[in-house]
Write a structure and sequence with these properties.
single chain, Rossmann fold, 5 strands, 18% strand, binds adenosine-5'-diphosphate
Length: 163
Amino acid sequence: MKKKGIAVYPGSFDPVTNGHIDVIKRAIRLFDRVIVAVIENPTKKTLFSVDERMEMLRAVTRGLSGVVVSHFDRLLVDYMKKKKASIIIRGLRAVSDFEYEFQMALTNRKLAPDIETVFLMPAEAYTYLSSSIVKEVVRLNGSVKGFVPRQIEARLIRKLLTK
Ligand code: ADP
């Protein structure tokens, strides 16, 4: 398949899960470059700082050629224009994601008609997985093996359980 252009995969990634990694791997098969872009939103409370989230993303995507990790704090479409990217990647898990994603995609289209949103579905095993559920399980001392890479689980344990 001929690959096309630069795509941006925006998200909180607080922290990155195997679901996100699955989406990144699917995206890189379709596009020349995938910029995984951490949203810097001071009003949204996150467990990890932007730097920590980028560091974790870099660690788990090392070895995936064509993937770069970055961050942005402005309107997504403005950031994309600066990066000369024309595709937004979003993951779709269940129907519950649909309404929000639909609203975002159409808003972004209104703001920038040339930018297209592409939705990718993860492997079935990850369709119920979210960063929030992973944090909740670790907080309650459960194992998140299979949900996040080992190094991310270690970071979560350090952050949530060692005071
Ligand atoms: P946001 O706060 O923007 O929703 P997330 O980091 O939670 O940020 O998610 C970024 C994108 O990845 C969203 O499109 C979300 O639907 C998708 N995503 C999150 N978890 C998964 C998963 N397990 N499988 C597929 N896509 C996912």
